[in-house]
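User: quick one, fold this
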Amino acid sequence: MRSLIALVLAVVALAAVPAVASASSFKAPHGKILWGGQGGYSAGDIRDFTHQSGLHPALYNYFISWNGSASALHWLSFRFADAKAEKTAVMLSLSPEEIRLTPRDIASGDGDEFLIALNQLIFESAVVTYLRPLSEMNNGNNPYSPYDLSGRPRGPAYTTRQFIRAWRRIALIMRGGPLAVINRRLHRLHMLRVRTSLDMLPRAPVSLMWVPLSFGNPEIPKNHPRYFWPGCRYVDWVGTTWYSMYKASAAMNRMYSYPLWRCRPFAFAEWGIWGRDDPAFIRQFFQFLRFHRRVLMAVYYQSALLKPEFRISTHPMARAALRNALRWRRMTSVAPIL
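Assistant:
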């Protein structure tokens, strides 16, 4: 009962904070670049990433499903505890694939129960969390993408308009605040109110990351990221993914420089070696960072289950190049604090 009263009082106190405080990029100070990692789901995996890369991660990514069951949330609470013990922030790459929610379903409120539970879990965990929902939304491999790999539309439940509506709903719920205010904003966006008995959602330390492919898969004009852009007020970070298998810097330059999203800091939410050992790509990547000062986050990808083609330890020459590059003073291992 005491813990419940404490939580209610904290929520009330945070609700009094101006709305602008609910949307934050949680950038590192002094223009430093947050160093991040992924691969595995234990505290030991975070420590191994530090050992392999040579630098402790300021944030660590977990791929999670849109699952609001008690067991799933209990499991996720341990991931927050691990991150807190290892002094890292958390990135959550969130996909509705497992329960087959469409963007229209999410925009209609069918995923609200999970979002409310996640908002409360992040608040209670008190760990800065970078939320990456519906990532690579212009990748036909993802079932929530509007086009399949042949370029055929998946139907009216998957359109770019429905994606934008879903994204905005996610942003409004995850940032929290009085339900009356959230519902008023949803009404203005022609969306249904949040169906809950709560009067208020905590202002959890959440930063929203919008991460498309730099052009699209398939590479057709209607799959360009601009068609998925929900607007600056609903996004805290803009980012993309980049791998050694696709080296061209031109696509990254275009994505980085596109006028619509120059309002936000830029992140490589996934990057790394894919396939053969390639130290030249490591050097190319860090050269890009040096000349693109809005890049303020770089999260190395080893795959969720540490597949050999992505693991740092299976690419010794790239590993050596990475450890050398991470001596750069702009890279930081210090997690943002509340």
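User: anything notable?
Assistant: The domain at 34-332 is CATH 3.20.20.80 (TIM Barrel).
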